[in-house]
Amino acid sequence: MLSKGSSCCCSFDDYKLTTEWLQNQTRHQPKVAVICGSGLGLLAEAATDKQTFRYQDIPNFPVSTVPGHEGCLVFGTIEETPCVFMKGHFHLYEGYSLCQVTFPVRIFKLLGVDSVLVTNASGGICPDFKVGDIMVIRDHINLPGFAGQHPLCGPNDERFGTRFPCMSDAYSKELRTLALDVASDLGCSVRTGVYCMVSGPNFETIAEARMLLTLGCDCVGMSMVPEVTVAKHCGLRVLGLTLVTNKVSLDYSREEKVNHDEVLEICKMRAELLQKLVSTLIGRCQQNINTH
Ligand SMILES: O=P(O)(O)O[C@H]1O[C@H](CO)[C@@H](O)[C@H]1O
Ligand code: HPA
C-alpha cells in the first residue's frame, strides 16, 4: 500500500484482499465494530468465543505505534451479537495517511458490519466536565479537515459512497438515545457534546484551548473523526463515546501538565465501567436494529 499524502492510497482491490483474507481465517460475521481508543482495549474482554489477529499479520493493515494501543483485531460475540474489536487505532501523528488511518472501517463495511462504536480518550474543554466523565458524542469538528487533511480527498469510489456525503447526522440519533438510556439504567451519568479533532501530537496551548472553547467544543482529541467520516460515507451507523482523561488548561495560572501516562491511567480506572456500558449497548443495539 503506497502513501500519497492526504489522498487515498488504497484501491478497492486492497480492501477486498484484506476482507477476503479475514473471511478465510474466521467464521465470525460481525455486525458491530468497536474501535477502542487509547488504553481502552479492555472493552474487547467482554466478548466470548474470541479469535484474535495481530495487525502485523493482516495484509495491508497498519500497525499500532502508540502505548495503550495493543494492535490486534478481536472477533467475538457479545449477547449473541457478532462483533469485531480494534484494540488500538491509528493516528495522523503516527505518520499514517488518513487512508491508512481509516482502512479498517471499509474492511468492516465489506465484512457486513452495520454499526460502528468508536471510543477514545480526550481532554475536557467544557469547564463543567470532570476527569473520568464519559461523553456521548453528538457532533464533531474536523479541524484537520478544514486544512485539507480529509480522508475522503482524492478520487471517490462510488462503491463505498457518494462524492459529497452529508455529515449533519454523523452520529446516529437512535444510538445516542440508546446510549443515554443504557447509561441511565446502569446508574452512570454521562455528558453529551461536541468532540474536536486536532492532529496532535502535542497537547493544546492555552490559546488554542480557549479558541476551541469559543468554537463550541466540549472535548478535544487526536483521533476518531476520520474513522467516523469514512463510516458515515459508506452508510454505517455510528456511535461515539469519549472518556475525559484530563481537563484542558484554559488558564495560564494552572500548574498541572497533561501527559499520555496520565491519560492511560484514567482509562484504566474507567475501562470497567465503559466496558459494561459498551457491552450492554451492543446487546440492545441489535435488538434496536431488529425492531426497525
Ligand atoms: O484518541 P485516542 O487514540 O483514544 O487517544 C488520545 O490520547 C492520546 C494522547 O494522550 C492521543 O492519541 C489522543 O487522541
Ligand atoms: O487534552 C487532550 N488534548 C488532545 N488529545 C487528548 N487526548 C487525551 N487528552 C487530550
From TrEMBL:
Residue span(s) of domain Nucleoside phosphorylase: 31-282
One term of GO molecular function: guanosine phosphorylase activity
InterPro entries in the cross-refs: Nucleoside_phosphorylase_d, Nucleoside_phosphorylase_sf, Pur_Nuc_Pase_Ino/Guo-sp, Purine_phosphorylase
Entry GO terms, CC: cytoplasm
The entry's keywords: Glycosyltransferase, Purine salvage, Transferase
Pathway: Purine metabolism; purine nucleoside salvage
Biological process according to GO: purine ribonucleoside salvage
Matching CDD domains: PNP-EcPNPII_like
Catalytic activity, as annotated: 2'-deoxyguanosine + phosphate = 2-deoxy-alpha-D-ribose 1-phosphate + guanine; inosine + phosphate = alpha-D-ribose 1-phosphate + hypoxanthine; 2'-deoxyinosine + phosphate = 2-deoxy-alpha-D-ribose 1-phosphate + hypoxanthine; guanosine + phosphate = alpha-D-ribose 1-phosphate + guanine
Keyword flag Glycosyltransferase: yes
Keyword check for Protein biosynthesis: no
Enzyme class, spelled out: transferase
Pfam families: PNP_UDP_1
EC number: 2.4.2.1
Assigned protein family: Belongs to the PNP/MTAP phosphorylase family.
Function: The purine nucleoside phosphorylases catalyze the phosphorolytic breakdown of the N-glycosidic bond in the beta-(deoxy)ribonucleoside molecules, with the formation of the corresponding free purine bases and pentose-1-phosphate. Catalyzes the phosphorolytic breakdown of the N-glycosidic bond in the beta-(deoxy)ribonucleoside molecules, with the formation of the corresponding free purine bases and pentose-1-phosphate. Preferentially acts on 6-oxopurine nucleosides including inosine and guanosine.
Protein name per Swiss-Prot or TrEMBL: Purine nucleoside phosphorylase
